[in-house]
Amino acid sequence: MKQRAVATGLAIAAALAMTACGAEEAGTGSGGASGSADALEVKIWDGAQVDGLQQIADEWTAQSGIKVNIQTLGWDEYWTLLEAGATGGDMPDVFWMHSNVAQKYMENDMLLDLNSRIEASDKIDMTNYYEGIAGMYRMNDVQYAVPKDHDTIALCYNKAVFDQYNVAYPDETWTWDDFYDAAKAITDAGAGNAYGYAIDVGNNQDGWWNIVYDFGGYIISEDKKTSGMDDPKTLEAMEFLGKLIKDTMPPQSVISENGCGTLFNSGVVAMTTQGSWNINTFYTSDNSENYGWAMLPYCDRNGNGAVDEGERCSIYNGIGWAAAANTDAPDAAWELIEWFCSEENQVKQADLGVTMAGYLGASDSYASAFEGMNIDAFLDMEEQGTLIFRPCSKYTTNWETMMGENLVGAWNDTSTMEATCRTIAENMNAQLAQE
Asked: Are 147 and 137 in contact (CB under 8 A)?
């Protein structure tokens, strides 16, 4: 596995007040790891993971006597609640942190400093975790979260659609040109009833960003000062994307109205690129017996028919387990994080099919967690491809939102793709100059 870190976090200009949940409000009592805290409030945003995580947490409860209440919120609701808690004094004890907002919370002292606890731990050694993820949750040599997981991207395809139009299934030999040819063949044969591929402008990590890096382009420079959207190799990748949009995808209006997942599950779309965090969605689908997974195609830039470094890329990211800086039960909060992130429970997380681990080498069993569905492609992407840490900067959401808004026009009229990318680069550079 090869890793390339290309970004480190998000910050806000205005400082937010550093507060956390009170003892009575959170139900945590006033003690710490001694057991006087009777419960910890834990918030996450993915309901598909809650059963497995609660099982792991309950095993900690059996040892510690401290109850763990895991509550799941939707993505938008989660961040609204966390920000309100940061300013209003009611943050959960333990919660997930994301690369989009990590620097914002670290800069403003909202997260518990974990350094001394990590140093004293016999379970946590930060060298055992993916450095791109661990580094995301570190500032000024202080670790504020421990990696919970990591993700990779793979290609999901509908065998029934491929069979219907007599097109060979994707495999590890596919280049992006092979991908295009198959998608085009299905689209032409489908005659408006089936399409080869679908992604929308928001599918960046699990979609077109991978193509950009496969082609040798980039989204943002490693020093976070310059946009890569006008780089010649990025433009080449985006022109190829334009060809995919024009020749193999449903109209953007259909994609935006229905969603790529719905179109795929209904058999209208033959292929979609997806992150490992979404496997369970496809596994539990009524049509799951028709679904297969393959590694992402590669870009044969050297023309030698072999996959050279940087020609098959997967954008990866990872959640961190963090605690509120002034939780009334800091020791208990840390012990729960330590429990979740220990090698034993990172392996168990994979065993249960919760997600791939943030702990290096602890994800092998994940491939066996979905009986009847072969998901080896996600682990193969890691072992045979190049992992690129999710592009971001201090104010990621500003330029990411701008990027998406601009690309809607290019999705509708692919002849404007290059001009749109150059406009994005200009606007992005202006925003980066303010960071």
From this structure: yes
What string of DSSP letters covers 290-354?
GEEEEPPPB--TTSSSS--TTSSEEEE---EEEEBTT-S-HHHHHHHHHHHHSHHHHHHHHHTTS
Query: In angstroms, rounded to a whole number, what is the distance separating the alpha carbons of residues 213 and 136?
Result: 20
Ranges of the chain whose pLDDT falls below 70 = 1-37
DSSP letters of 204-252? IIIIIHHHHHHTT--SB-TTSSSB-TTSHHHHHHHHHHHHHHHHHS--H
d(CA 158, CA 292): 7
- CA 435 to the chain's CA centroid: 24
**What is the signed CA dihedral for 210, 147, 6, 324, rounded to 10 degrees?**
120
At 30 the pLDDT is: 31
Nearest to 373 by CA among 295, 289, 261, 294: 289
Q: What are phi and psi of 94, to 5 degrees?
A: -130, 140
227, 220 in Cβ contact below 8 A? yes
Residue 193: other Cβ atoms inside 10 A: 10
What integer pLDDT is reported at residue 89 of this predicted model? 75
Residue 173: burial class (beta carbons within 10 Å; 0-12, 13-18, 19+): exposed
Kindly report the pTM of this predicted structure: 0.87
